[in-house]
Structures are given as structure tokens and as C-alpha cells.
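Appendix B. Extra example for self-study. Work through it before the problem class; the solution is given directly after the inputs so you can check yourself.
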Amino acid sequence: MSEDAIVVEGLEKSYGSVRALCSVDFSAPTGSVLGLLGPNGAGKTTAVRILATLLEPDGGIARVAGLDAVRDAAKLRAKIGLAGQYAAVDENLTGFENLDMVGRLYHMGKAEARARADELLEHFELTHAAKRPAKTYSGGMRRRLDLAAALVFRPPVLFLDEPTTGLDPRSRLGLWETIESRAAAGTTVLLTTQYLDEADRLADQIVVVDHGTVIAAGTSDELKDRVGGERLEVQLEDDTDAERAMAALAEISEDRPTLEDHTVRAAVRRRSGIIAEAVRRLDDVDVCVEDIAMRRPTLDDVFIALTGRAAEEEPSEEPREEVYA
Amino acid sequence: MSALAMTVSDTLVLARRNLKRIPRQPDLLVAYTVQPVMFVLLFVYVFGGAIQTPGFDYVDFLMPGIIAQSIAFGGFVTALGLSEDVQKGLIDRFRSLPMSRGAVLSGRTFSDILLNCLSLVVLFSVGFIAGFNFQDATVGEIALGIVLLLLLGYAFSWVFALIGLFSSTPETANSLGFTLIFPLTFASSMFVPAESMPDGLQQVAEANPFTTITDALRSLWLDTPAHTDIWMSFLWCFAIIAVFAPLAIRRYRQVSAR
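Solution. C-alpha cells for the complete assembly:
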């Protein structure tokens, strides 16, 4: 396919006086994972709802799998899967019944829907709980069932709205692995998240949104490069070596090396050979090194640099996303 | 698949879903069985002695009214279920599927018909035990009354569907339903003769569709004069469906979680 699987151009949406999206642009090539990163209220959910045909934009273009999200909404629904931060499963139905129902609503045949439900339950390690009502499931199990429901029809494009919010670390890791395997199988994934490590790990491209506008876009590495170079961190065996160590590293450092918690930090521009050179210099002045490593800036650093605040802060309430005609 | 075949198939899939839930939610089962029984017993034995219904035993006067009220409220489970579906994000999932746009609601209202059949069996049973008897009613008249009741239940399911979609929580749906519709059933001839009410209220009661429907049932089952009540009752039901079904479907297409 020549066109990108997800194309958003000049997308606008307001709720009353609140501008949820102000001329937002982004795109995702077929088979890639796009991470929409931003704090609560940034407009991530609004963008996903528009792309998933749940909400009509005020203006701009939203195309998914070559189809317009407004004009071709009915056709588009056969090509997308949606899983949200609220695990949308029927608590009174069993895991099997939930997936079977979704299959029938995609107009699969009876036998086909059942076979697909069994297959997904096994894939998501829910076979043992297949006959239990979903209200008896743990949070992680519900999320897996919700994701399974989004995959019933093998959609080429998958929307995941904060898929791991509220999950314990182990369930989170499991869900990440599942998302990675879907992406590896060629599914285009749009993922929203407030977690920087999640975007870092899963997304090929990251779009940072804040207050309804795109404030940065690129790969994880590109974004980190914008914040500045790398840092060399040297952990010392003995603090009395600190002065000599900092002096030795000053020549290869961009600025004055600093000392904190037995660790000397120095900003460096180039990467290749820098550790070997640092070790040589430290050895020349008889500094004993416990550990030495290069540290790249984290996405946390990126977010603070871009917005002047940490990503986890919640500056405003997500607007109540409801439309009155 | 044609649009009609798709709508029928989706409706049946969702109706089956609604019915499967019932035995797993014992509180709903109570609403369908114990609550109507309680109402019949309260009215017959607590108020019955004090209410004058010239020409009738009170239980005979009461049963058509109380059955109509219970059946009209049968759709309540639709209001609760839909507001829960909205709250839990299930409506978002359904709206993102390539399914019929009305099926979530028609599935609800269709399963309500089946549940109302269950209510009817319970209500007639407790009615007969309390002493209710048909008077000069043919099998056809009894059946026509039952058809009218099921149609009434179906019409009110659409009213409750709209209430459910406008409620942010099942609790809101509950209080909205009770404050809007419950008084309407009491300001009618369902439980007491309209003539016994003060001026003003009496005129309201006489214009109330619940009065029309209850009087139609009495004419069918107790051989009272029918006037225009029977065909007017059917007209009322169709009018309610014609107004509320499009409103509810329109609302469904715009509603979203949170």
C-alpha cells in the first residue's frame, strides 16, 4: 500500500470552548507502531475516538487504511480494532461468550466465531478462565480479554487507548509483549500513553501532544537527541578520588563534570571510543572505577525540556468527552 | 449480507447476550418476579379494603392496572443495562464494530419482550391466587389484552432506552425513571377510579395514556364499555415507539463513555 495506514492532517475538535485538538498532524506507515504521548487532557483520546469513527471532527482529515473516518466510517469499522483504558468487556458474560459475541457482530459464521474465540483465549492464556464470567477476572485478565476482543477480526489497524493504565508491572510487561507480537505480524498500531517508557519501548515513531497540539515528533532517539548529547557516568570506588577524576574528565567533557552519590557525570558529544578514552585518562591519574557507562537522556528529560514540566503532572482535567447535537 | 439480515442477526446476538445475563444477576430476576408480586399483595390486601370500586371486587379492578404498570416498567432493565454499557465503555466497542446502528437498542427492547412474558406469567399467577377472574371474556379478548400489554412494554422499552443513554450511571437512570414515569402511572385509573380524584387531577388522569390502556384492558377482560379505548391504546403505543425509537437511536450514535 502506498498510502500510510494512518493519516491525520489539520485535525480540529472542540468541546464548547475547550479546544481538544488544534490542527493536529501525524501519520503512521503501514505496519508501524505510532505512540501518541502526552499528559491527561492532551487530546490523545479525542484523536483516537475520531480515528475509530466514534466522534466526528470539526475539521481536518482523518484517514485510516485508505478510508475517510467520517465519510467511509461504515466501511472503516471492518478494518479497525479498538481497545481502551476501560476494559470494555461484558462482566456478566464469560470470556468465551464475550469473544464469540464480538465475532458474531463482525458477521462471522457460528463455527468460525467459536473457533476464533477459542484461538484467542489460548493465545492470551485465558483458556482456563474461558467459562467464568468476566467479573471474576483480575485487571490484567480483563485487559487481555479486551485486547483479544479488538483482535477478533484480525484488523489491519489497531487503536490502543492507554492500554496499560492501571495495570501492575507484570501484567503491563505481558501486554507489551502481546502488542509487540501484533506489530511484528504487520498490524499498524496507534497507541496512546502517558508513560514514557512505554512509548520508548513500543513505538517506532512518537508524537508528543500537549493541550491539543503536536509539540514534537520523531523516533525515540531523535527526540532524545533534541535534548542534547549523552552523558558519561563514572561510579567511583572511593570518593577521595573525585577531584582527580573530574579534572581528568574535564578535557573530554562539554561542560564541568559534576559529582553526586559517588558518581561523576560528564556531558559528551561523540560516542565512539569515549569510554576507552575515559578509562585511560582515569587510569593515568590512579582513579579506581567501580562502574562506567554511557547514559542517554530519557524521554522524561525530553518532556521536561519541551513543556517545562514532567509528563506525569496533570495540569487539567480531560474534558468531558460527550457531544450534544 | 443485506442491511435487514444484518440488523436481524445483530439484534438476535445482542438479545441473547441480554438474556444470558439475567440468571447471573439475581437482583434483576428479583425485579422481574418478586417485585410485581409484592405490589399485587400490597394493593389487594393493604389498600384494597379502603378503595371503593363500585361494581367490582377491588382485585378485579386492580389487576389490569397493576399488570399494565409492571409491564410498562419491564423496560427498566434496558435503562439500567444501557447506562451501564455506556459507563463501562461497551457502547464504544459496539459503535466501533461494523454492525447495525440500531441493533444494540433493538436487541435490548426485543429481549425485554421475552422478559415481559415471564412477568406476565408471574402476575397472572399471583392475580388468580388473590382472587382475580376474567368476566365474560372470550379467548380472543384475553389474547388481545396480552398483545396490547406486550406492545405497551415494547413501547416503554424505547422510552427507557433513551433514559438509559442519557444517564451517566445506572443510579441516575434509576432515579430518572422513577421520578419521570412512576407518578404518571399513579395519576391514572390504574389503582383507583379516576372519578375519585380531585378536580384538575381527574382531567389529567382521564387524558393519561395509562388510563386509556387500563380501561381498554378492563373492557377486554371485565366486559366494561370499551368506547374508543382499545384502538386508542394501540395508537398510543405506536406513537410512543414512533417518537422514542428514533430519538434513542440518534442518541446512541452520539453517546460516548465518561
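Self-check: The mean pLDDT of chain B is 89. If your reasoning did not lead you there, revisit section 3.
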